[in-house]
């Protein structure tokens, strides 16, 4: 540990400071700042370390063995790989070879083409040219499932855990059938798998609730469990603290020792020097050579990547940096941290260190007013109560979750950069495009953001360049306090140094900066003060000057040991990978069953019963056998078409043509299942078979067209299915301009008049089928795969799930079931009415959504859709019972729908979160 730390909450005196080195960030405040000559001391970036650490020697045996195996056939051979995205040549004639037992690092600056190469090997990116073979077999198709079947398993840079699924489900989904157990044993298998690697993570938790480091570890375990021939880790250690990194490096060694090859993409060159046998360098998409790791140094690698000499010094800092207090926090506490007292001074950079999950990020968010917290935060003497008020006081927060929290995916790069300062780029409330362009171009130059043009979407940028876009927006706002989580995650060495200089410059201009980082060497080189956190409390404060990676890691390791000594879970945690107190606890069966979805369904059933009782109080025939039968008849086609729609909603689509399909089905029934010219109804078997056959064929045709338009042509589902709705309705009208053509009474006899108690048999059969299908969705790998496609189609595809094929299947199923719902409707209307199904278009969407389905996909259930449909049918019959006029009946239906929606999963989850936080605080 370092010298005696000052008590937390009291701080050493800080002096004023000046702009260091190149001052890329300038503000009015900066020019006002008193500048003093400083005693400077610089720290070299850890990546420049040329002496291997002690643990490095364990790689020697692997290297020797890899050298010995060099004669074995390569497990991965790539040659002449090229890929162009519009104006950007992402890869240009790149080759690579991985021998069995080899750990091969792939390095390069942001945008140099590493992820593109990984994408080509893993099947997510189609190459323009080049040859690829995995495990000795040539790979021609760009499909993840193909690469995986050849033996290449990838942990992607931006992850592929589906947040809404549990950890166990994610592990199960990504593991090939040969390596996973029966579906019913999934949880215990997943738990054993994680435990066998030393992780104490509750596998029944949703993946989104895990800290980023744990998520990365779960993904790595999943990949290793596949026993790949080629394991590809694309910046898979970026969110890990030093302990997590140690574990992953050891895992890589084990995988290589078993004879597989590892392709390790990283910006952390110290890790390359510790683990890699050979290193391939890319620059601007071009190959810069493959080198023996033992014969090179990080500095040489950096210069090969940059193509120029690079100064690896951190920016200067002063021993007594710091001006006036700009932020005060007292008694600040929230979920996972506190109470904490803190003062931040102008001109300083404060680092929050600790093992992953010890409260650093929650504290940062608490300071920003983002999460619910107790205590008080003031900036410039004014209280911060929410993130909105934080921004008003000049405080900004930058999340490490680029995709979801830092960037606006639908806006261009230029818009993302200029968004925070639109006021200063406008005159008379109108943004001056020239001024904005100039501002954006300058930011792109200053932060060296590699873009084709600023009109691109941020999703088209490499990970590190996305980070620079987010950072440039935040820094342009000239904040008083900058709170930033993992500022250099996924950023290359040269750009990291740029970012350090920008942060130092903004501090020198009078701001206070707080940085959370899993990279202790970054905190040691950058910060003026380092607060080490353990179990949600600040336990040690280190002065930045003089701090080293070792002293910081040492401080939190000591704290952990002290805590573990007196801790009942100490032994378990010590055996585990994560030093942090796991924020997760095993949940009881009851708590697990009380999901938002089950609560919602229960609420809907209660609502249904209340409605029925109310109707009965107004009309005492409502709950009699004929009354119930009438409501059931009303519900019958609606339940069927709601179920049809659910299949498409499940995979993230929507089909607005279902009502039209029902109509055409009715019209077709008036042709193919019609009363004969002699008035005969036809044979039961003949009419039923013809009806079902015609309806299903109609559905397959319309569903096939819908799928083609959405999947192959790329039209958004709503637009595509509106187009088919028009065509299908038109055909129905051409066939029957007015209601005509009697439909055989056989349909009514079979589908309406056969009953079980007061309920039509057809409805009972339908409900049983829906329950069985729901069980299939919940209890089988096939159902899980379908839900995964809806929750995140991209990630599902990465896991080798044929997402496009499954979506196509669902469109076809949806239209076919809608065709069958049309047969039921035909039985009820009895005539070829060309408008019969029109009112079902919106009801078919409303019912499953009422029952818990989400337009974004992956949620809800068929039973939920059926309950939603029943509520809508009930409300329709209530309108009759109450003898409401048209206007009142609309208001009534609207209020009812609103009530049902209040029981939505999201509202319930919010309420539960609120109650949980209140409970945790009390
Ligand atoms: N889908 C896409 N559309 C357009 N351009 C793209 C797309 N994907 C990547 N690029 C561009 O291709 C180049 C190489 O990107 P790639 O992601 O392979 O780089 P990288 O070396 O992995 O970078 P990083 O270290 O930042 O992840 C970049 O200039 C990037 O902007």
Automatic annotation (TrEMBL):
Entry annotated with the keyword ATP-binding: yes
Biased composition (Low complexity): 30-43
Superkingdom of origin organism: Bacteria
Keywords per UniProt: ATP-binding, Cell membrane, Membrane, Nucleotide-binding, Repeat, Transmembrane, Transmembrane helix, Transport
TM region(s), chain numbering: 594-615, 627-649, 687-710, 717-735, 755-777, 808-831, 837-855, 862-884, 890-909
Alphabetized Pfam families for the sequence: ABC_tran, BPD_transp_2
Record membrane topology: Multi-pass membrane protein
PROSITE patterns: ABC_TRANSPORTER_1 (PS00211), ABC_TRANSPORTER_2 (PS50893)
Compartments where found: Cell membrane
Classification via Gene3D superfamilies: P-loop containing nucleotide triphosphate hydrolases
Keyword Ligase attached: no
SMART domains: AAA
Region Disordered, residue ranges: 1-43
Domain ABC transporter: 76-309, 320-560
PANTHER family: CARBOHYDRATE TRANSPORT ATP-BINDING PROTEIN MG119-RELATED, GALACTOFURANOSE TRANSPORTER ATP-BINDING PROTEIN YTFR
Designated name of the protein: ABC transporter domain-containing protein
Organism: Nocardioides marinquilinus
